[in-house]
Every structure is written in structure tokens, then in C-alpha cells.
Write the C-alpha cells for this entry.
Amino acid sequence: MDTIASLFSFITTPVSWVIVQFHKVYGALFGADSGWAWGLSIVSLVILIRICLIPLFVKQIKATRAMQTLQPEMKKIQERYKNDRQRQSEEMMKLYKETGTNPLSSCLPILAQSPFFFALYHVLNSIASNDTVGVINERLLESAQKAHIVGAPLAVKFTDSSSKVEALGSSLTDVRIVTAVMIILMSLSQFYTQRQLMTKNVDTTVKTPFMQQQKMLMYIFPIMFAVFGINFPVGVLVYWLTTNLWTMGQQMYVIHNNPTPGSKAQAAYLERLHKHVTHHGKVRRRSERAIVKTIVAKGRDRNEYERKFINGLSKAGLAAQPDGSVVKSEAVAVAETEDGTPVGATPRRQQPKRQTKAQRQAAKAAAEAEAKTSLTKSETPEDAKPAGGAKPAGGAKKAGSSGRSKAQSGQRKGPQRPKSPSKK
């Protein structure tokens, strides 16, 4: 590690200068030899570096999402040219060039941060070795050696001997406990950050080897931090724990406000956006408008969550526009009074309730009974009966019986139309 740190000695002086400037500010508050002054100086160095790396972080997000989108095409190329490695590499480079994707873009923040990390390691290692480095002179060196964080000097490591630890004014037990706790926190924060990315912000509709690779890294990175952490000085552990917490918070913000399309985070985000838009009747933030604009531009290529969002707006009487705004749909737009009540709105047509099978059978039986009753009344009217109960003549009886037999033959149900008198 010392050899690697010496390779980045060109940036040691700027890093030590930044630490000293922050130390002047915190030293005035907590004391020049306080562990808080030196510890917060390292934390402030991390925050300053990560703020400067935000543009690279944005590029990393875009590159990672582009790589996820290209995974199906990359898998096809690997299967097509699995016996020709050279042709496979050529087709991969061609695909990257056509889509404007660079696989190394996802590693930019780590690569850009590594010189500062090794420069800080070189500074703290020099403090432990009682050597001046950069702008840290003998007076600042003595002050840094006296600084302790929860009983552990900034420049000691988990593997240091008890004599070295006692020379810096601490005990080996305190150093082991503090470094072990910081290594565990550093590994857990790394694991949670990677797990949060895999469980919430990955497109679940695409199953690719890239996802399997990310799952492996979720377990490999924390183990690597735990192994290498025992050789890091306490000040470097403070640096790395701070940058892990920053990365975790930064990623939580991105997942909450700009999730990956097709992920669970996008489903939760669009659900929140739907409630917000239907409540206010419009899109209020510029970032939300950009996301709605992207969804509208996709057209038929929308995923399940995006289609559900657009359909939900339609049911609420709203329509998303190509510019990302949301307006009332013309199909349901009506004039409104000053208090917001609709004027001249046609009543909505109510659909009849669906009847059960028993209700339909009962209604059918009632209709048949009513038809039989009307048929009986039409065949034997009250005014057609002879007075005194006299029986009708044989001819009339014959005609009546013939009429009833025709009615019973089943040609037509219900009352029959009277026949016209026969002409002789």
C-alpha cells in the first residue's frame, strides 16, 4: 500500500493543504489538538471531493442504465459468436459506438476518487511514522499525533503493535475496538448500498448476466473492505466510512427521485406522482415534467408501470402532453363556475346492475305467467259468455275448440288475433 500511495505523491501536497485549512476552522472551535478538529477535517475533505464528483456520478448513472439496456443485445452477440472471440469483441465495440455507451463510465467516480484516497493514506502514514508531508510541518505533525477519535489515534491501524500504539498515547484494546467497529460499519454500509441498488433500482423485466454480476459484487465488496480495512489507519477508515455514507445517501436520493425504468422504485415513484398530479391537477416540478415527457415519448414502448400511470391519469380525466405537462382531458372537460362546480354537465349514464342466475330465472317465469294469463283472458272474454249459463251451440263449440287447438300447437304464444268471418 505504501508503494501505491507513493505513486500518488503528486497530489499529496494539495490534499494536505485542504486538510490544514479545514483544521484551522475546526481547531478554533474544538481545539487544535482535538480529535474532532482533525476528524472533521477529513470528513470535510470527503464532502468537498464528492461534491466535485457529482457530474461524474451523473455520468455513472447514465452509463449504468445504458449498459442494462444493452444487455439483451450483448447476450445475442455472445451467443452468435461464442466460438470467435475476436469477432465478438469487434461486434461489442461496434455496439458501444452505435449507442454511445462506454463501459468504463460506470467506474469514473471510483477512478477519480482513488488518487485522493491514496494521497490521504500517504499523509496519515507519514504522521504515524513521525515524518512531515506536504504542508504539514513539525508543529502540525505533533498536533495530529495527539489527536484521538474515541480513544484511537488517527494514524494507527488494527494490526499495529502495542508499543507503537502506546507511543501515540493510547491502548491496543481501544484501538482494536474502534477500528473493528469502523470496519464493520464500513462493510455494512457498502453492502446496504449495493443491495439497495439491486432490490429497488434494477429493471426486473430484463434477466441478464449483468444482474448476476451485480449480485456477486454485493457480497464481494464488503468482504474486500473488511480484509483491507485492518491495514487502514483510523483516519483512512473515517474517510472511507464517510464516502460510503455519502454514496448511500446520494443513491437513495436518485432512487427516490429518478429511478431506473422498469424497476420497483419506478413503480413506487409513479404511484406517488399519480397521487400528486390528480390532487393538484398539474405537474409542479421540472424533474417530474421531464419524466412525464419521457413516458409520453415512448408511446407503445412503455413498460407496465408507465402504462398504468397513463391509464390512471385518463381515468381521473387528465391527459399527459408531449411537453410533460398534464391537462384536463377533452372527453370530460366541462364548464365550471367560480366555486369549481360543473355547469351543464350531462348526467353520466348508469349501467344496469348485473342480475344473478336465480333473478333472471324468476323474471322469466313471471313473464311466462303473465303471458298465459293474458292469453286466457283473450280466449274467454266476460261479455262472450251466454246468459244463464247456457252452453254455446255445437258450431260455436267446434270453432272454439279448433281455435284452442291451434293455440296449443305452439305456433304463437300470447293472445291471438280474431279471425275474419268466412264468406259464404
